[in-house]
Structures are given as C-alpha cells and as structure tokens.
C-alpha cells in the first residue's frame, strides 16, 4: 500500500515563499502522477497542481496558483515538491499530496482521480 507523507508547512508572511515536500514509500514512485490539494476552513478541497509520471513539462495548475506555485518531482528520492512563491492569505489551508498510478504525459487535478493520500501539512499565510 503506497504511503505519502507531506512536510514543509508552517507560518509564512504575505508575499513570502514556502516549499512543501511529499515523500512516497512502498510504491514505484515514478509510475504515479502526483497531485497537490488544499482545503481552507469552511471550503471544499481544491486541486491546485499536479505533475504527471511522464513528461514533466506537462504540469497542471489551478488559476488561483498559476504563475506563483511550481510542482516538481525527484523520482530518485521518491519525492514531489510544491514551491509556493508570492503567497497570499487566501493560500492558507491544509495541503495534501495524493498519488494515482498513471503512466501518462498528462495529469488531472480532480480529487476523485487519486486513491492514495497523505495526512496533510498546514500552511498559514499571515497578512
């Protein structure tokens, strides 16, 4: 059973940067697309970014983070990253990574596509 563990969350000032990590274990990491999701208090979970297993130039971002966040992966380390720049208070939330076995050059940010989830890491942006 694949396991995912997020890290790197914390408190950051408006306009600052943060990098989240998603470490995978018990899985052939390079065969999985990785998605990043977030859930703010009182809101539904939102898919903010994903990176496919193949063709890492085909990342997919939500409009709310495009141009500010960058998703990447290091298959040798079985780890994916979410670099968050120019953060805003509305980026506050619990951030999850998720994985789906998908040997494709594209990925989807739809929650129902992903079967394996981490426990989440909290990001709080102060204004």
Task: Give the strand tally.
Answer: 11
Low-confidence stretches: none
Q: Mind summarizing the main beta sheet?
A: 7 strands, mixed
Q: Helical residue percent?
A: under 10%
Q: Give the overall form.
A: globular
Q: Write down the Rg.
A: 13 Å
Strand content: over 45%
**Arithmetic mean of pLDDT:** 96
Distance between the amino and carboxyl termini = 40 Å
Structure description:
With 127 residues, the chain is mainly β. The protein has no helices and 11 strands. Strands 2, 4, 5, 6, 9, 10 and 11 form a 7-stranded mixed sheet that branches. A 4-stranded antiparallel sheet has the order 1-3-8-7, with no helix packed on it.
Task: Present the secondary structure layout.
Layout: E1 3-7, E2 10-13, E3 18-25, E4 32-39, E5 46-51, E6 60-61, E7 69-74, E8 79-84, E9 93-101, E10 116-117, E11 121-126
Give the key terms.
127 residues, 11 strands
Structure summarized in a few sentences:
With 127 residues, this protein is mainly beta.
């Amino acid at each position: 059973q694949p396991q995912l563990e997020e890290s790197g969350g914390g408190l950051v000032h408006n306009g600052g940067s943060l990098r989240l990590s998603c470490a995978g274990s018990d899985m052939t990491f390079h065969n999985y697309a990785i998605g990043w999701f977030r859930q703010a208090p009182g809101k539904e979970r939102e898919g903010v970014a994903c990176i496919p297993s193949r063709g890492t130039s085909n990342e997919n971002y939500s409009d709310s983070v495009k141009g500010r966040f960058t998703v990447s992966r290091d298959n040798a380390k079985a780890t994916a990253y979410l670099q968050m720049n120019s953060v805003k208070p509305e980026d506050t939330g619990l951030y999850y990574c998720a994985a789906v076995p998908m040997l494709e050059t594209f990925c989807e940010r739809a929650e129902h596509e992903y079967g394996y989830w981490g426990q989440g890491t909290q990001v709080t942006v102060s204004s």
